[in-house]
Write a structure and sequence with these properties.
heterodimer; A: 430 residues; alpha/beta; 18 helices; 53% helix; B: 253 residues; Nucleotidyltransferase, domain 5; five-stranded mixed sheet; binds iron/sulfur cluster
Chain lengths: 430, 253
Amino acid sequence: MSDYHAMWEKLGLDLAAHDGLLEVLPPLYQDCILSQENRPEGMQYFDFVFSEVHGLRIKELVDHRASGGIVVGTFCTYVPEELILAVGGACVGLCAGAQVAEEAAEQYLPRNLCALIKSSLGFKLAKVCPYIESCDLLVGETTCDGKKKYYEILNQLQPVHTMELPQRKDEADRRLWREEVRRLVARLEEISGRKIDEAALRDAIRVINEKRKALLRLAGLRKCDPPVISGRDALLINQIAFYDDPVRLTEKVNALCDELEERRDGGISIGGAHRPRILLSGCPMAIPNWKVPTIIETSGALVAMDEMCTGIRYFRHLVEEGAGDLEGMLDAIADRYLKIDCAVFTPNRERLDHISELVRDYDIDAVIYYALQFCDPYTVEAFQVQQELEKERVPFLYLETDYSSEDMGQLTTRVQALIEMVETQKPSVF
Amino acid sequence: MTVAGLDIGSRTIGLVVVNDGEIVFREVVDTTFDPLEQCRRLLAQRDFDVLVATGYGRHLAQANFADQVITEIKAFALGCSHVFPQCRTILDIGGQDTKAISLGEGGKVADFQMNDRCAAGTGKFLEVMAAAMGLLPEEMGRLALQAEGEVKISSMCTVFAESEVTGLIARGTPRPLIARGLHEAICDRASALLRRVGVRREVVFAGGVAHNPCMRVLLEERLGLQLLVPENPQLVGALGAALSVLSRDDVRA
Ligand code: SF4
Ligand code: SF4
């Protein structure tokens, strides 16, 4: 690994604090990811990208800016990546998955706020995130109240453009959202000094669709039983998809899928006995938040699918291609993003239907609901998800947690009790 | 075959040795700061073919001497339905956890709920509150039972409730009333947890707090039914752990 200290210093990072952060990542990565057995070879690329998460990728972004490009940071799957790409920008997801500088963040924010928001500000205040420091613009969105108000505070530290996301999906909402997409276009054009033209947008739509198709192909391969890839590796890929170069990522995911298909056809699996298949559903898990999937998979079950923003919710819908001129394409983009079924929407029937569909398609034995403490949309919507699953008689386990590790023991007991329950209910299978 | 079941909890460690379906040995010791040493002492001079560990320290035991591990949820389900075959619902209030378990056919776990990470509604809560009043937990239970009336304790958070109790004492509120209020608060929590899995007869009350007569009376009033309490409520987990091996053998036969 090269020495990136000069680059980090230039970005304004607090080098001592940043070194501290980089020290905790490798052992965590070892325990959660590298210690798994029979991983596909194609994971080497993702291991490499992760090992260079604050190195090579940041260097690419620095070079990109040096050659006149912009970098745009996002916090949510509702922000259209295509637009950023079409002005020659690089898009990076900034969701934070580790507890950093909590006390500092609590000088600005109340204690009872979800870990995602608090740690996002923590990273900013502690000056340990080279991504946010590389951004020419941050794009927020009015999803949950916590984030919405947080962006006002963040805007005091760094410019934030906030998109107004409607919370219903009627015609009036669609009109508003299509307008918001155009308002973002204007802001991006202003910052980048480039106009979005038809050819560039068409190309961007295609590039991001290809990325989604590759991730969908990978998702499809998670139906294999015995499994050819673990849930943790799939999660890692999804997490990396938020900040890696989209064209290169697409290529690497497709290459991995080729290998996984060979594995499937050759009867090679990640090994072990047949295991209960779990659907994880709920709040996003940003890097390096692998706590719950690691508990599940080291307790003998498999995360067969994730219904979350760091899972299939991110890439499930494609933008319709061939939607005509620039205006038509902008509408097609807006419509695609409005299909996302985040819990901030009301009513949110699509999400319930999708969960049932995943349970069937992925031959799910139990659903584990992952809610971040103090996240109103997901903690409240859990009730309806449970109701829905009761109808289908699928066991449901609700876990509410944050980024600390002190509840590992309790979480492990619950997860293992769920696994025991599934195994005794279906003794012929396990 | 002789099987030992070891339940390593946050407050106590229980050992039950079963031979041909008969309990041949049982003992409870405090967990202390060195649970491993306590286990070794407990297991010294005991004969058994298989050792199954459960409880929050089960993984520690597995790394050192246990042959198998199961969760306390499964252990309590097996133990309670062995002692009371009519059991359909279990409430276990232990040192650090409160669990409600609902059983399906054959005593299998059909659903369960556990308290969140904090100590609210557990034995720990009672201990801290007893200490705040300068009492032993048993004394507090007795006082609470004698109380005519109660004061409402509005906070379930151990930290806040403790200062609430200190405030009440400072205002001269009789201790029995406070003690009663604290028991009612736990009772609220426990019955809410039970309702989430569904209260079906018979309901077994287990775990260390089942020794507390006041908790039992209050819960029975609240739920409108009689609770079944095992003779050794703290050992049901260890018993279940031991039985887990036997029941598996039964299935095989
Ligand atoms: S969970 Fe909702 S608010 Fe959070 S990133 Fe996903 S879409 Fe955005
Ligand atoms: S996890 Fe919940 S509370 Fe946190 S940012 Fe996402 S929607 Fe908002």
